[in-house]
Design brief:
α3 runs antiparallel to α4 and α3 runs parallel beside α6. The chain has a single domain, classed as Methane Monooxygenase Hydroxylase, Chain G, domain 1 (Up-down Bundle). Helix content is 62%, strand content 0%. By secondary structure, it is mainly alpha-helical. It binds protoporphyrin IX containing FE. The site of protoporphyrin IX containing FE has 25 residues, from α3, α4, α11 and α12.
Length: 273
């Protein structure tokens, strides 16, 4: 059967995708015009579009976990991993800029900075990161963004949802010690925990890819700026280097130190095929 097409709607590729609007949003500010500014604006806009999709998928992964559906939560996270790989690789395009090419328009950025990205921070909050006072200092946010981020902090994050799922599966998760035992159980225990183990691995991968992005971005910043401070007021690559090792799920990482230890009386690490 041929797909039915509604010719009467007059919808075209350009109108469906709202291309005239989208393609009109890259407004360079440098004067005289700097060759690399179009690339810089476009790359950041593409990141923000992917951030939007990530928020949609991660929220759904969280909701599926809260519904007790580990399979669909993992499916959503798998898509997020692929998007995150795109985000990591995409920064290679930024590296085609020379530091001098960047300096030709850096002044036009004023005090704006990726540090102010509301969606980036929202992804971190939804993933389980602490606010660390960021929201109180974020005077640049619109009232709408501020409210959205406050709500994100108040609602369950991916970690809360995962722990809920473990509890529903009958595992004790009230204390860090109990959770460590639960992670061990899903790693090497009964086969009925396979789905939870796969899900915990999907969370680890999300965490890992986010750290890789932080590192990759910090390298680009070193390459472009050396030791210069950022437009957002930080020390620049020094500040970013401190952010690289942050983890959304430290307990899942720590649990690995105990896998296969002699006193746990269980099979050695890694466990599942
Ligand atoms: C020439 C390329 C780039 C340079 C020189 C650069 C520079 C910086 C600097 C110095 C900071 C620290 C905050 C500050 O003081 O401004 C920062 C933070 C940040 N930048 Fe970039 N950046 C570049 C490209 C990008 C791209 C392509 C993105 C994609 C969205 C991005 C997103 C971010 C984010 C999200 C932060 C906050 C990181 C955090 O707080 O953990 N940056 N950037």
């Amino acid at each position: 059967m041929r797909p039915s097409v509604d010719h009467d709607s007059g919808l075209t590729y350009a109108t469906y995708l709202r291309l005239p609007h989208v393609l009109d949003q890259q407004r360079c500010r440098s004067s005289p015009p700097a060759h690399d500014e179009l690339l810089f604006i476009t790359v950041h806009q593409v990141y923000e579009l992917w951030f939007k999709v990530l928020l949609f998928e991660l929220s759904n992964a969280r909701d599926r976990m809260l519904d007790g559906d580990a399979y669909r939560a993992r499916l959503r996270l798998r898509r997020c991993h692929e998007i995150e790989r795109v985000l990591v690789n995409q920064i290679d395009v930024v590296d085609t800029m020379t530091p001098h090419g960047f300096l030709e328009f850096r002044g036009a950025l004023g005090s704006s900075s990726g540090f102010q990205s509301a969606q980036f921070r929202e992804i971190e909050f939804l993933s389980g990161a602490d606010d660390n006072g960021w929201l109180d200092r974020a005077a640049w946010l619109s009232a709408e963004d501020h409210q959205r981020l406050s709500l994100r902090l108040a609602e369950p994050d991916l970690w809360d949802a995962f722990i809920t799922l473990l509890a529903v599966a009958g595992l004790s998760v009230g204390t860090p010690r109990q959770r460590a035992a639960a992670f061990h159980e899903i790693a090497v225990g009964d086969d009925r925990y396979n789905g939870l183990w796969e899900l915990s691995e999907a969370l680890i991968e999300h965490d890992q890819l986010w750290s890789i992005w932080r590192l990759r971005h910090q390298m680009t910043v070193m390459r472009q700026l050396g030791g210069k401070p950022g437009t957002g007021g930080s020390t620049g690559s020094g500040y970013l280097a401190e952010r690289v090792p942050l983890k959304f799920y430290p307990e899942l990482w720590d649990a690995r130190s105990c896998f296969g230890q002699p006193d746990d009386g269980r099979p050695a690490a890694g466990a599942r095929p």
